[in-house]
């Protein structure tokens, strides 16, 4: 009798800005029929909640208490036809698009820098991740949130290639952008992300590093699907 090879149930994809992790993470989740969990949404959810309840964003304790007490959930998009990649629920309310508002964009970075908020949201991310059949995309998934993920991937690309991709993306949206400025901002953000003391951006010791600098999206996906296929469960 042929045995079906087991697949990794929890897959973590981390990497720097514009490394392609969201595109690849979503494509991988679709190929495997897994939930796509773009983990930035939990920081967005708490930011939206604080804004809508009028809680001052400078009040770390109040925001951390929200992050601890209000359940955040993610569902597969089911039959939604509005382009959502997953449905985001806060206490059962659908906030998928509310968390993408410009006011959330402008404040989420400050909220995600609070250590006590990160700690509370770690528990929420783990609860969602441990349900399994999930691709989790972020910056600290393999190192902090799910160090027990079955498969950990660190998706990288050179700063010049990432700046080129970001430029192309922005131009596709009709924005007028300058490559040199984007490259400088990208280098600054890399230094900040990998130098910060809370959850610095770095590969987990057992992550598979995939350099996408010279690869197309479909080539990166093939490399990662090969890693998925080669995966072996570790003996307990
Ligand atoms: O990817 P995004 O724009 O939705 O992320 C929203 C914010 O959350 C952004 O400021 C970075 C932060 N974030 C984080 O600190 N750790 C993660 N794993 C994901 C996002």
Plain-language structure description:
This protein is α/β, with parallel strands linked by helices and 236 residues long. The chain has a single domain, classed as P-loop containing nucleotide triphosphate hydrolases (Rossmann fold), CATH 3.40.50. It is built from 9 helices and 8 strands. Strands 2-6-1-7-8 form a 5-stranded parallel sheet, with helices on one face. A hairpin with a 2-residue loop joins strand 4 and strand 5. Helix 2 packs across helix 4. The longest helix has 17 residues. The chain is globular and about 55 Å long. It starts with 9 loop residues before the first strand and ends in a 6-residue tail after the last helix. The mean pLDDT is 92. The site of 2'-deoxycytidine-5'-monophosphate has 10 residues, from helix 2 and helix 4.
Brief characterization of the structure:
The protein is of the alpha/beta class and 236 residues long. Helices cover 47% and strands 14% of the residues. A 5-stranded parallel sheet has the order 2-6-1-7-8, covered by helices on one side. It has a 3-stranded antiparallel sheet with strand order 3-4-5, covered by helices on one side.
């Amino acid at each position: 009798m042929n045995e079906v090879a087991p697949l990794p149930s929890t897959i973590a994809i981390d990497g720097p800005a514009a490394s392609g992790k969201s595109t690849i993470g979503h494509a991988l989740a679709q190929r495997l029929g897994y939930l796509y969990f773009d983990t930035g949404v939990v920081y967005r959810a708490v930011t939206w909640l604080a804004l809508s309840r009028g809680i001052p964003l400078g009040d770390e304790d109040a925001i951390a208490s929200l992050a601890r007490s209000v359940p955040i959930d993610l569902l597969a998009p089911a039959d939604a036809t509005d382009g959502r990649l997953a449905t985001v629920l806060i206490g059962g309310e659908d906030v998928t698009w509310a968390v993408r508002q410009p006011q959330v964009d402008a404040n989420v970075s400050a909220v995600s820098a609070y250590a006590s908020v990160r700690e509370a949201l770690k528990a929420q991310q783990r609860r969602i991740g441990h349900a399994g059949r999930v691709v989790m995309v972020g910056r600290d998934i393999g190192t902090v949130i799910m160090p027990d993920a079955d498969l950990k991937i660190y998706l990288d690309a050179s700063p010049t290639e990432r700046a080129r991709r970001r430029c192309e993306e922005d131009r596709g949206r009709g924005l007028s952008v300058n490559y040199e400025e984007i490259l400088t901002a990208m280098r600054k953000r890399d230094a900040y992300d990998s130098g910060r003391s809370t959850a610095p951006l770095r590969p987990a010791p057992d992550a598979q590093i995939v350099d996408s600098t010279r690869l197309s999206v479909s080539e990166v996906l093939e490399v990662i699907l090969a890693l998925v296929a080669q995966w072996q469960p570790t003996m307990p």
